[in-house]
Amino acid sequence: MTLGRYASRRVALGLVQVLVVLVAVFLLVEALPGDAAVALAGDNPDPARVAAIRASMGLDQSAVERFVGWLGGLVTGDLGTSLVSGRPVVDFIAGGLPTTLLLAGVTLLLLVPSSVLLGVFVARRAGRGVDRVVTAATIGLHAVPEFALAIVLVALFGVTLGWLPPTALGADPLADPLVLVLPVIVLLARPLCAITRLVRAAMIDALASDYVRHARRLGLSRSRVDYRHALPNALAPAVQQLARTTDWLLGGVIVVEAVFVIPGLGTALVDAVAGRDMPVVQGLAVLFGVTTVLVNLAADLLAFRLAPRAGTAA
Amino acid sequence: MVSAVVVEVVGLRVEVGRALVDGVSFGVGKGEVLAIVGASGSGKTTVGLALLGEFPVGAGVSGDVRVRGRVGFVPQHPGAVLNPVRRVGAVLRELATAAEVGRAVEAARFPRALLDRYPHQLSGGQQQRLVLAQALLCDPAVVVADEPTTGLDRETRDEVVAEFASIVARGTALVVLSHDMEVVRALADHVVVLRAGKVIESGPAAELLTAPRHPYTRALLVEPLRAAANDAISAERLRIEGLTAKHGRNVVLQDIDLHVSAGECVAVMGPSGSGKTTLARCIVGLHPPSEGTVALDGRPLARTLRSRSREDLAAVQYVFQDARASFDHRRPVLDQVARTAARLRGMSTADSRSAALAALAEVRLTEETARRRPATLSGGELHRAALARALLARPRVLVCDEITTGLDAVTRTSVLRLLAALRAAHGLTLVLITHDHAVADHLADRVVTLHNGLVRNSKIGNP
User: Fold this and answer.
1) What's the gap in Å between the CA of A123 and the closest CA on chain B?
2) What is the ipTM of this complex?
3) Which residues share a beta bridge with B14?
4) Which residue does chain B place closest to A214, by CA atoms?
5) pLDDT, tens digit, for every residue of B428-452?
6) Looking at the complex, does the CB of residue B120 fall below 8 Å from at least one CB of chain A?
7) Chain A residue with minimal CA distance to B94?
């Protein structure tokens, strides 16, 4: 199967997945007890007032009608309005998205080259001292959850040493990039360990393969064999893990945003859930769901290129 | 040696714990072909790699290997040495200029149009030619070819042999490591026979192949095994009518008719992709045909394995091409063989074990060997265990799919002898799927050739 055919199939599947996500998000919110009208009516609801709110919000229509209406709104970019503030949901997303994109972008930009290079570096020295040290360090660091690492780093560099700002409270990350240093380190730590270990393991396999031995026989230089022949084969498992990490980062890592007071999408979601602001929750869930589908679509296309044989079996 | 000596090996000894190669000496001149023959494990590949200066990890090496010029290497399984994620042309261009690539590709007769493909998009023959082109790129003085024809069908093998001959004609020396005697006959000027790392016989090919002095050499030159008479052939046992089979929308077999008598041996041949294996799988019920019937002793068999009765399952048995893959790696061979008797003949555990031991003894496998796990058995031993497992069901029809592929001549001969004896002893109907003419010649009463899913011809073997 060619890449083109695989891509068109995979995109079709992606569209179905997005549709399923939309239905699921709608049904989940639908399944919650009470509705927006009850939430709005306050602690001591008067049935007449609830009914009036329902009618004004269109909640007295059937679920199918409301779903079609909601879907139509989505297509035109209208995600509804917040129940709490009355602002459009799009505003909430637009408010959190740049910060989340910035954090995710910087993290990925550092993560990809460093994890691949570190993985290759230790794979080429497999079994030696440096490999053991890196392996032990990656396992150890991977075992530390984000919030613990964040608190330790804040206490050490932010408070005790005072080298870096302990929170991003009120700061503009673009004007003052130093506020991003600690959050990015926290976001980087575990994915770096996971991907380094995957690249290392796959690279060791690839270096022991017949095609790498044969490439050496043909007189190619060692770095050429390692980077041009072995590495492309070793990347496939890392790509899938990288997709998972990207998805995680784009969903706004709530713990990190909370510890460093960064107003990203995660914070927006937490606030919306705390305020029972269902349209906002719904809008964010759609955004995260679609992101997941798109990121995995990209990863699958990349993996297909990295393992062209896999496509023939599918 | 006529002209300039290109390769000179004197007293080569390679040991890892035990000696893999012990005191091997030979020389190869410009444009000469040396064949190193021997069963698997005889040290052929170790000698071949020594010419490239490659030795097993931690090996102790003594003796002298001198090569004047560069060495090109054509490994045993070309598929395994081609990088699965790189286009084949890009790899060639990494090694040399476009003009040199063009010449090498030309010399190996690899089609230029295929250069932007991935290795898995090439056939076995094309992969073989590509690896040859890689070897020719560095303008080698000598090419070392390790089992260059393993797993190729007859037509492809003849082509590969022709390509080697044309390279030799241009003055490149060739060292062939092979257990394929037809290839050795076709190419070699000199032959060295290796056994357990030692040279047991060597000399000009013409002399050695016609009048071998050592009994081991004689055993390597396979002699015919055909059952002497066709007396056993009587009633019709297997009748295939109008069989059509598809893989997805691809029609793999089209309207196949085949009648096989009781005790008859039919070889089904044809190039790779001609539908041989699918036919075999239809017979045993592993692949449901889209049309047509398979009847055993006049009674149609169900299309799928699941819907066949236990008796029908026992009556038609299948021996897989890859014996090792057909065993569970975690359980002893004996348990797995005995399972046939328990499942298909309803025997108790104790009875099935003793029946299994008897069947294993018939294929000359001891209880001690059978109690081990498959990983510690050799390929030949597993083939025999797979045969025993199939025979334990008391089949009326035995379908064997390429069961001699990858076996060296000695092991292959013993497997073929065993099949001939079993056929005589049990009045077994054999359907052999093979692309090895030697196998068909030695065993089959009749050869059916498939081509693109059609029966191209069907001929009676000359007894």
Assistant:
1) 18
2) 0.70
3) B21, B61
4) B81
5) 889 998 877 777 777 888 888 888 8
6) yes
7) A220
Amino acid in position A226: D
**CATH 3.40.50.300 domain residues, chain B:** 5-220, 236-333+378-383+393-460
Name which of A208-212, A289-293, B377-381 the model is least confident about. Answer: B377-381
**Residue of B85, B122, B144 to mutate, interface with A, max A Cβ within 10 Å:** B85
- Of the candidates A106, A142, A113, the one whose C-alpha atom is nearest the C-alpha of residue A246 is A106
pLDDT, tens digit (0-9, with 9 covering 90-100), for B258-312: 888 887 888 888 877 788 888 998 999 888 888 888 888 888 888 888 888 888 8
- CATH node for B5-220: 3.40.50.300
pLDDT range class, residue B463, cuts 50, 70, 90: very low
Find all residues with CB under 8 Å of A183, minimum gap 6, and list them.
A103, A150, A168, A256, A260, A262
How far off is chain B from A301, nearest CA to CA, in Å? 14
Any CB–CB contact under 8 A between A218 and chain B?
Answer: yes
Any CB–CB contact under 8 A between A224 and chain B?
Answer: yes
Domains of chain A: 3-75 (no CATH), 93-307 (1.10.3720.10)
| Bridge partners for B291 per DSSP | B244
Tell me the average pLDDT across B5-26. Answer: 87
Q: Which of B49, B54, B83, B86 to mutate to test the interface with A (most CBs of A within 10 A)?
A: B83
| pLDDT value at residue B234 | 57
What are the φ and ψ backbone dihedral angles of B434, each rounded to 5 degrees?
Answer: -155, 155
d(CA B58, nearest CA chain A) in Å: 16
CATH code assigned to B236-333+378-383+393-460: 3.40.50.300
What pLDDT does A243 receive? 92
Q: Which residue of B has its CA nearest to A235?
A: B85
Max CA pair span of chain B: 70
Q: Which residues contact B200 (CB under 8 A, 6 or more apart)?
A: B193, B194, B214, B216, B217
Q: Provide the pLDDT for residue A192.
A: 95
